[in-house]
Each structure stands twice: as structure tokens, then as C-alpha cells.
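# step 3/5: fold
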Amino acid sequence: MDKQISKYDLVVIGSGPGGYVAAIRAGQLGMKTAIVEKSDLGGVCLNWGCIPSKSLLRNAEVLNLINEADKFGIEVSGVEADFSKAISRSRSVVSKLTQGIGYLLKKNKVDVYEGTASFMNESTIFVESSNTSLEARNVVIAAGARQRDLPGLNIDGNGVITSRHALELDILPKSVVIIGGGATGAEFAYLYKSYGVEVTIVEMMDRILPQEDEDISKELTRSFTKAGISIVTSSQVKSIDNNDGSVVVEVHGGSDELKIECEKVLVAVGVQPNSDQIGIENTKVETKNGFIVIDDDMKTNVDGIYAIGDITGKLLLAHVASEQAVIAVENIAGLDHSTMDYSLMPRAVYCRPQVASFGMTEAQAAETGRELKIGKFPLAASGKALALSETEGFIKVVSDAEIGDILGVHMIGAEVTELLGEAGMTKMLEGTTSELGSLVHPHPTISECLKEAGLATENLAIHM
């Protein structure tokens, strides 16, 4: 078959939350655009990450609510939780969204190529399965990242699995060891424990969610421990012995040694960029430890080649990739565009209680030498939280003592991820804790706690 050649203003490699947004925005701006995807539209996030995991976490919430029904004067008996149906529901949700992305790409006249993309040179992309070459004036690399290979951890998809495998696993293990106490580890720990699985988290750092404010980590540890989740910190996995349905994990923490027997090991730590899978060696694009080096405009060191999302290693979050996509495409189009302050990007963990934050932790803010004022308000003092019977957690505001500038907001509790937009907007509009505290919030809502935390920086909280 003769090789076909097609010319485009923009070719996007990868259709995750960075890639498909880049393609759609380019289509809106009238660029002749193509997107190349080797698997399913939506990438890892939509198909095997953000969306199916949140669908399963919703199942866990419903199950927990049923199990706690007696608190609300409701007697429930004979409850059976079919995890395979939870998996089926999550796949159904994914299917609807992938179809939606396909529709949006078509609506914006984006050509979709199925297959593995590989650079032939800096302006030519070869799509293997269709034997097609795409000549591009500009390229946006959005090829993502994958689970990192770790020494001594033989990920076989059976006894030792990744989150990708876990999202297909329709038969629950009786026990699981989760390696990594970050966002993914915390979410799966909550999910599995909700279904009665014996869960142990092993974290190399001295606390789970080590990137979050220390007070948040302590509160989540307390909540998880109360729920029966075992947490082993300041420890590393030295070996995994996998024998026909039984896995023994050897953990070292200083001079201590621990052997944990379980049915499955879930590896939820570390990724490696997919830059080694796209023929980047046929270009002069600069990489560092495999991650593509970019500037504030998402440009690489090669004219006309941009990179966004996990493959840049900047901040491995879907919404960050989407915003990078818009910046890159608008830069290509010659438009004025926003810039990104990665330190202010919102972060969310969807376990129970939820964790939500942006900006500097108290410790990071203290390192800047500023005089700080901290406002903290417990959900136990919230009328809405009490009505929901969801009183775990608090909201914490870190501010500059002199001018009231909001340096960071850290939240743990029921539905606090929904408050990130308000907190982020206040910061973007250069609002202070005074303005946050003076804004009238609807009553009763969890959002009132954010107002009270702002007031608390000046010891003016009303309901505490």
C-alpha cells in the first residue's frame, strides 16, 4: 500500500485531557487539525484514571451511606455489594464520555487517526496502523506517561497490579497492600476498605499525602486509621514474593522489618514519560529524565513543536494538561493568552473525607520568611456538615499577615473539592482573607466554612 501524505496546521499526538482540548481549541480557531491516538479517545485519564475511579468511588459512597443508615433512623438488612456491577457502571460512564469527545472532535472538524504516532523528522508524523504520514506546521505532543518500572517490583497484572489493572478487576481481593500513599493510593484504599477489603498502605515518606499540608495528612491518617486502614510510613518495599494467589511484601523502615501477606499488591507510585515511544530521537527536542523540557508558552527548544501534560513532568493533573493545551494552541495562533502558576493549580483527592488544596502549605509559606496568619475552621461547627452527618475535617487558610494575601487553602471534609473554584477565583482576583470573610455565603452550606476560615485568620470567626 502506498504511503498517504496529509498536510495540517497542527498535529496533536495523544487524545487525553491535554490532547483533545488542544485539538478542539485549534479547530475553534480555524486551524486544519489532526489528532493521533494509539488507543481510546480520552487517554488514560478518561479511560483508565480520573473518570472510572471516580465512578467507583461514588459506589463506595453509596455503600457507606447504606451501611450507616441507622444513624438516620433507617433500618437496612440483606445488603449485598456486587463489585463487578460497580466496574460495569464505571465502564458505561467512560463509554458515554469517549463518545462525547469523538462528537466534539468531529464538530470542530478535527481529523482523528487511530494508531501509534512517531516522528520521522521535526515536521512529519508517521501513523503506523494507517500507513499515513502527516506533515505539520506545528505539533503538540500530549503523549502522557505510564507506570514507572521499579526495581524488585514485577508488575504482572495478577498478584502485583497498577491502578490500570485495578479498574478492570471485577473480583475483589480479600486483602491488598498499596505501595504509595499519594492521591491514587488514598483513593483506592478508601474504595477497597468500603467493600470490606483488608488494606495496608506503605509510604516511603513520613506521612501519607506527603505533598499536602501536614495538618491535612494528620487528619486523613486519623480518619483512615479509624476506618481500619493500616498505614506504614517511612518505609520502603524491599521485595515481593508472589506465589499462586498469595503475595508476601517485605517492608523495611529504618532498622525495622515487616512482612505483610496479602492477595494483591497495588503499585501506586511513580510514572515515566512516554517520550521513548514517539520517535523523539528523530528530532532535536530536549528532554530531562525523559520528560520534555518546555517554556511558559509550552514551546520546546524546537520551533513549531510544543508539549503539554504528563510528558512534561510539570504537574501530573488532568486540568493542568487542559490549561496547557489552550495556552499552547493560542500561542500558535498568535493570540494573547494566560500563563500558568503551577504552584496555584488546584489539587483534589476523592477519598472520604475528600482533600482539596492549592498554593503553599503552612511549612512552605514559613520558608519564605513571611509573617503568617493561619485561619482554621472545623466542619464539626458547620450546620450543614452536622445535618449531613459529615463532620470530619476542617478548612485551613494560610495568609500573609501584613496584607492578608491568600498563600494557600487546604481543606479536608465532605465535598470540599467543590470549593476549590471559589478559593482559586478569590486568589486570581487578588482577593484577601478579609474579602473572603466578608463575602456572603448561602446558609446552610459547607462553603460557609471557607468564609469562617478566612475570618479566623484575624480571630473573627463567628461560629467558633
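# step 4/5: annotate
The first strand starts at residue 4 and ends at 13.
# step 5/5: archive (pending)
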